[in-house]
Amino acid sequence: MGEEEYRPWVPFIGTMSLSIFVSNWSGALLPWRVIQLPHGELAAPTNDINTTVALALLTSVAYFYAGLHKRGFSYFGKYIQPTPVLLPINILEDFTKPLSLSFRLFGNILADELVVAVLVSLVPLIVPVPMMLLGLFTSAIQALISATLAAAYIGESMEGHH
């Protein structure tokens, strides 16, 4: 983002990162899926595709706002750079960014929780503990990756050319 432009975005990126981190760890520390409820189940918030899509859409709104705030309507000139023939591909890029952000977070957290839930139901005492520790590490890495990608997308929208 640059040394001058990062300060206004620290609260957004920090809050998103901490939110993802706490959500992921709440699912990694306690195997919520083991608890059976009559209607539904307990799980980490990032185990739901709606939560991860909402976080990705917040990031999309943030990088459109950053680009428009910094460069005005000349921000939309990036869609026809270097040639207008690339307009559909450049528009498609703005749809794939939130899609990849949401599916990456959702898929990794869901896979981790499913592995731990299966291992806890098969061998309840010793075997799941290393997988749960790996889940803690994976959860922290996913929070870092999501925050880094959000900052990179916002920084890219504020720069002159990509």
Automatic annotation (TrEMBL):
Q: Which SUPFAM superfamilies match?
A: F1F0 ATP synthase subunit A (SSF81336)
Which keywords describe this protein according to UniProt?
Answer: ATP synthesis, CF(0), Hydrogen ion transport, Ion transport, Membrane, Transmembrane, Transmembrane helix, Transport
Where is this protein chiefly located? Answer: membrane
Q: What are the BP-aspect GO terms?
A: proton motive force-driven ATP synthesis
User: Which domain of life, per UniProt?
Assistant: Eukaryota
Give the UniProt entry's GO cellular component terms.
Answer: plastid; proton-transporting ATP synthase complex
Organism, scientific name: Ceratopteris richardii
The UniProt entry, under InterPro entries, shows: ATP_syn_F0_a_bact/chloroplast, ATP_synth_F0_asu, ATP_synth_F0_asu_AS, F0_ATP_A_sf
Q: Does the keyword Transmembrane helix apply?
A: yes
Q: Which residues span the membrane?
A: 9-29, 49-68, 105-127, 133-154
Q: Does the keyword NAD apply?
A: no
Q: Which family does the record claim for this protein?
A: Belongs to the ATPase A chain family.
Q: Name one GO molecular function term.
A: proton transmembrane transporter activity
Annotated localization: Membrane; Plastid
Q: How does it sit in the membrane?
A: Multi-pass membrane protein
> What is the protein name given in its UniProt record?
ATP synthase subunit a, chloroplastic
